[in-house]
Amino acid sequence: MADMKKIYVFMMTLMVTAIVGCSNDNLDVKTSLTGEWELRLYDKSWGETTEFNPYEVSCLFYDGGTIEMKNNSDIDLSPLVNKGKYSYQVNADHTVTINGTAFDYFIEDNTLRLYKDRAADGPMYVFSKAK
To answer: Which residues contact residue 67 at a Cβ distance below 8 angstroms, ignoring those fewer than 6 apart?
Structure first.
């Protein structure tokens, strides 16, 4: 019986060590919006997509909660903001609120995807990290 208790304590210690020892150091790098992003694709849903040339539409996320949009096209990007400086806030549930409008966001391999009403086939914006 004492041996079983030792094994149990050892296994619990090992499990706690594994959980506590996991690092999320790369989490900030993978999910950081800070920096300049170029809009590559705007999908209004229902098959309406627009592709953009480099720097035709870009946005710059500043650390202090400000986003600057530059839109050199004549495409209306609503519900995303078109031109100017606006406030933004990153939320814990993988959403970002830009000028009062919430978007789901995902970052993978220097690609940022913003979705508005994703479950209802709402618009999607695909950005590439500017070099």
So the answer is: 59, 60, 61, 81, 85, 86, 87, 88, 98
DSSP 8-state class, residue 62: -
Name 66's bridge partners: 87
Return the sign of the alpha-carbon dihedral for residues 109, 111, 118, 89.
positive
Q: Helix, strand, coil shares of the chain as percentages rounded to 5?
A: 20, 45, 35
- Cα angle at 48 between 42 and 49, to 5 degrees? 35
> Is pLDDT larger for residue 16 or for residue 2?
2
| 66-115 per-position pLDDT tens digit | 999 999 999 989 889 889 999 999 998 999 999 999 999 999 999 999 99
HEC sequence for 98-119: ECCEEEEEEEECCEEEEECCHH
pTM of the entire predicted model? 0.73
